[in-house]
Amino acid sequence: MADAWGWEYDPDSDFVIGGIDNLAFVAKVEERADELVRAASALYLGGTKYDGISPLMQEESIDASGLFVYQVIPRHQRVCIRRVIFFAA
């Protein structure tokens, strides 16, 4: 279990963002993930002691470029990015 809040690609980056070659878009996803981590750490102050139900998966748009699906898991102090979709021009 982690000592501090963070985010990760779940199950791994190859599965979640593999094939997306637009590095600027990926950087925007990761920047937004950092913001979600800060928000989750403030919302779930108990972190590892949280005993409620984990929030459902949510969707976050990145400009008109694409979106990603994520889930906050308070007990593991993680924001898990499950899927990234890039709308190729």
Give the CA-based shape: elongated
Figure out the total of helices: 2
Along the chain, the helix and strand elements come as EHHEEE
Instruction: Tell me what the CATH architecture is.
Output: 2-Layer Sandwich
Largest sheet: 4 strands, mixed
Q: Please report the total strand number as a whole number.
A: 4
Distance between the termini: 40 Å
Q: Order of strands across the widest beta sheet?
A: 1-4-3-2
Q: Give me the Rg, rounded.
A: 13 Å
Domain module count: 1
Show unreliable segments: none
The CATH topology label is: YaeB-like fold
Tell me roughly what share of residues is in helical segments: 25-40%
CATH class: Alpha Beta
- Average residue-wise pLDDT: 93
Give the structural class.
alpha+beta
| Strand-residue proportion | 25-35%
Polypeptide structure, described:
This protein is of the alpha+beta class. It contains two helices and four strands, in the order βααβββ. A four-stranded mixed sheet has the order 1-4-3-2. Strand 2 and strand 3 (66-73) form a beta hairpin. The longest helix has 21 residues, at 23-43. The radius of gyration is 13 Å and the shape is elongated. The chain starts with 5 loop residues before the first strand and ends with a strand. The mean pLDDT is 93.
Brief rundown of the structure:
With 89 residues, the chain is of the alpha+beta class. It has helices at residues 13-17, 23-43; strands at 6-9, 58-62, 66-73, 78-86.
Question: What is the strand and helix layout of this fold?
Answer:
Layout: E1 6-9, H1 13-17, H2 23-43, E2 58-62, E3 66-73, E4 78-86
Parallel strand pairs: 1-4
Antiparallel strand pairs: 2-3, 3-4
